[in-house]
Design brief:
Blueprint (H helix, E strand, L loop, with lengths): L13 E7 L6 H9 L7 E6 L6 H7 L3 E4 L5 H11 L4 E4 L5 E2 L3 H6 L9 E11 L6 H6 L4 E2 L6 E4 H7 L10 H11 L3 E14 L8 H21 L1
Parallel strand pairs: 1-2, 1-4, 2-3, 6-9
Antiparallel strand pairs: 4-8, 5-9, 6-7, 6-8
Length: about 230
Amino acid sequence: MTDHALHPVGASDVGVVIAARNAAATIGASIESVLAESVPPSCILVVDGASTDRTPDIALGLGVTVVAQDGAGLSAGRNQGVAALDTALVAFCDADDRWAPGSLAARMRHLGSDLDRSAVIGHYVAACVDGRTDTRTEVARQSPRPAWTPGGLLAGRGVFTRVGPFSEALTVGADSDWLVRLSQSDIDVSLIDDVVLIKGVHAGQMSRDVPTYRRELLRVARSFVREARDR
């Protein structure tokens, strides 16, 4: 795989991080959903975690930047991506998710004036990505839920300085840990009604590791209680 320098693909000052590993079946749709935005981002950065399939080739074929991941795990990929971007705003799209039409524009409309202290989270619906389900029917019959996940987030670069990086000591609990820290910070977080994310569901995803998920969420909850007690 050849690493390419960051280059603009759109008009807005938004960088999108896609951390991926062996996601050849889904990453094309993920990238295309971001590129299809009416207000496209200025950069899409795929951080590839040593894929053994065609993940990096598919991404490069769609004209986005691909870099080899230095560390291991999803959190390391996200952290590396955030550090590599120089955009004022940062967003995410997991390699098995897709942005809903108008996702970026909807979130940008609700940003506060102080970008370094502003974050927006939308709603999501879920869809199977195993090819056996009619995605349009599945999405249409759902009630959207708050997208407390990185794919539903748009945040100023300074937010990541204040909240800190994603925990590389956690796996399935890393998102919850970061979002708890976000809620404990001085960041102005706006929850909007717009559906901004179509979250992919499949048998192999990490969140289906229930024992690990419960163990790590308990660890996050204990940390939250300690922080609240020390205030």
